[in-house]
Design goal:
This protein is mainly α and 331 residues long. Helices cover 54% and strands 7% of the residues. A three-stranded parallel β-sheet has the order 1-2-3. The structure holds iron/sulfur cluster (SF4). One of its GO terms (cellular component) is cytosol.
Length: 331
C-alpha cells in the first residue's frame, strides 16, 4: 500500500509527443514520481471525443505516447501508467458526476469555446464534448488526488474540478478532497516558426525524431528578424532558438558567450544553432536509444499497461464504493 499523496495527470493520444510536452510536463512528471504516488493516464476516451469519426489512429497513438513517456524517464516501477478505458471506473464516475454538474458551468468553460474554434474541421457539437470537463474532473477525483500538475492554461479546468467536488460533497457528504494546483514551472518552448510548439501548427520537434531530422528543422528555424545578415546585431530574447537553448543548454559559460556573440554579431545564427544541436543530441540521443529499444518489446509495453491499470483499479474501486454509498445506491 503506497500511502504517499496521490497525483493524477493525463495526455490525449492524438499523436507523437514533442519537445514542448517534455518541457511543459514530462520532465516535471519524472521528478514528481519520486515524491508522490503518481497516476499517469493515456486518456483515450478524451481522444475519442474529438476523433470519434475516425478512431483509426487512437490505438497506435496510445503506444506512441507510452514509448515517449518511458523513453523520457517516466518509470512504471515508481508510478502507475495506464490507459484510461482500461479502468472502467473512469466511465462510471463520469456518469455519476454528470448528474450534479450544471449545464451552465460547461457552457461557460473557456476552453470549450476555444476548442470548438480550433478544431473547426471536426463536428464537436456532441453531448460528450460539452461534458469533457466532467470526464476530466472524474479522472482526477477517481484517485482522490491530492494534486494535479498543470500549466497555467489548464488551471480553469482544475477550478471546475474543485467546484464539482464541492457540489458532490455538499449533496452527499465528504467524499472528495479538493485537489491542489501544482503549477508546472513555465518553460517556454517555441516551435520552429516562433509560435507555441504544437502538432497542429506543424512546427514541432518530436521526441521520436532522429537528430538529422531535428537538424533539418533547427537549421531553418526562425531567429531574431533583426539578424538578416551575418553582420547584423541581434537580441537573444527575441529569438525562438534562444528559448530552446535555455532549456537544453546547461553550460552557463557557453550561454553567456552566445548571448554576447548575438548582441555583438560576433557569431552567426548557424553557429549558434550548431551549438544548440550538440546539447540537443546530448539529452535526446539516450532518450531515442531507449525508445527504439522499448519499441522492440511490445509484450513488455502491454505488461506495463496491465500492471498500471491493475494498480489504478484498486484505488478506483475504493473510490466508487464511497461514491455509491454516498449516493445511496445499492452496490
Ligand atoms: Fe538567435 Fe542565436 Fe541567431 Fe542570436 S545568434 S538570433 S540567439 S540563433
Amino acid at each position: 500500500m503506497d500511502d504517499r499523496k496521490r497525483i493524477f495527470s493525463g495526455m490525449r493520444p492524438t499523436g507523437r509527443l514533442h519537445y514542448g510536452h517534455m518541457a511543459g510536463a514530462l520532465i516535471n512528471w519524472v521528478k514528481l514520481q519520486n515524491e508522490y504516488n503518481c497516476f499517469w493516464g493515456i486518456v483515450d476516451w478524451h481522444a475519442m471525443m474529438s476523433d470519434y469519426a475516425d478512431p483509426s489512429k487512437v490505438k497506435e497513438n496510445c503506444y506512441e505516447i507510452l514509448l515517449d513517456w518511458l523513453a523520457v524517464g517516466v518509470d512504471p516501477e515508481k508510478s502507475s501508467i495506464f490507459i484510461q478505458s482500461h479502468v472502467k471506473q473512469h466511465a462510471e464516475i463520469h456518469l455519476a458526476l454528470s448528474m450534479i454538474t450544471p449545464l451552465g458551468w460547461l457552457q461557460r468553460c473557456p476552453t470549450y469555446k476555444e476548442q470548438i474554434l480550433n478544431l473547426q474541421n471536426k463536428d464537436l457539437s456532441t453531448y460528450a464534448f460539452l461534458g469533457y470537463p466532467v470526464l476530466m474532473a472524474g479522472d482526477i477525483l477517481l484517485y482522490k488526488s491530492w494534486g494535479v500538475p498543470v500549466g497555467e492554461d489548464q488551471s480553469a479546468h482544475l477550478e471546475l474540478t474543485r467546484e464539482v467536488a464541492r457540489r458532490f460533497n455538499s449533496f452527499y457528504g465528504d467524499v472528495f478532497p479538493e485537489p491542489e494546483t501544482l503549477l508546472t514551472p513555465a518553460a517556454k518552448m517555441p516551435g520552429t516558426d516562433g509560435r507555441k510548439m504544437s502538432k497542429s501548427y506543424g512546427n514541432s520537434l518530436q521526441i521520436a525524431e532522429d537528430m538529422e531530422t531535428i537538424w533539418g528543422k533547427v537549421r531553418t528555424m526562425k531567429t531574431d528578424p533583426a539578424r538578416e545578415r551575418r553582420t547584423d546585431k541581434g537580441t537573444p530574447e527575441k529569438c525562438p532558438v534562444w528559448d530552446v537553448h535555455k532549456f537544453f543548454n546547461r553550460d552557463a559559460q557557453e550561454l553567456a558567450e552566445l548571448h554576447e556573440g548575438c548582441l555583438s554579431a560576433g557569431i552567426g545564427c548557424v553557429d549558434c544553432k550548431k551549438k544548440l544541436m550538440v546539447h540537443l543530441a546530448e539529452m535526446m540521443d539516450p532518450i531515442q536509444k531507449r525508445r527504439a529499444e522499448l519499441a522492440k518489446r511490445p509484450d513488455d509495453l502491454k505488461q506495463i499497461l496491465e500492471a498500471g491499470a491493475a494498480r489504478a483499479r484498486r484505488v478506483a474501486e475504493g473510490t466508487m464504493e464511497d461514491v455509491y454509498s454516498a449516493m445511496n445506491l445499492i452496490h
